[in-house]
């Protein structure tokens, strides 16, 4: 069920927002669009989800402000780690999401509070990804790409019905946002447990899986793929990238 979050996430994904939109940040450049244009473009994407379907422009702005000021509990924030690693040769944002570190079952068993924290953390991820896409006026930059690392994911996440049920619900809430802005995702360290997870959720993920390439735990197989598809200076050294690598922005 964890893959759903981040395949949704993956567009659906964290401590910047309206305040960062209104000031100079690592996401912006000399071609920065106006705030109104930023919110308008975000609205067009977010409205594809039932969660934001009827949000006006001002409501989108308020949501972005509110989600940026919300802080996740430390335990969740520490495990929910992702970062804007760099950009592709086509200038698309490259996000790395360490999915395997998030213990969804543990969060869900905490009750409604845990579910709410997870949902809001996902909304922050979505906001951060959108902001990286809409950082300038280029009509060519409308998508993002992602590396999703499942190292640490366990089969125990798959056999807990409340966890599966909640993650499917979360996926359905944000799947259309992800489908609207994800160009490609590379899943690495996909163990047998991850394969079971993906196969059991194919009906929900649907055509989105056509944008996802899945590789197992053999580093010798997926490392050349990362080198071929992404610039070396946008990859951390543990993925064979530059030793002096530094992400543009990190969360968690």
Automatic annotation (TrEMBL):
Keyword entries, A-Z: Signal
PROSITE patterns named in the record: CRAL_TRIO (PS50191)
CDD domains tied to this protein: SEC14 (cd00170)
InterPro entries: CRAL-TRIO_dom (IPR001251), SEC14/CRAL-TRIO_domain (IPR051064)
Gene Ontology terms: cellular component: cytoplasm
Signal peptide: 1-18
UniProt KW rRNA-binding keyword: no
Domain CRAL-TRIO span(s) in chain numbering: 72-247
Pfam family, one: CRAL_TRIO
Entry keyword annotation includes Metal-binding: no
Protein's name according to its UniProt entry: CRAL-TRIO domain-containing protein
Species: Allacma fusca
Lineage: Eukaryota, Metazoa, Ecdysozoa, Arthropoda, Hexapoda
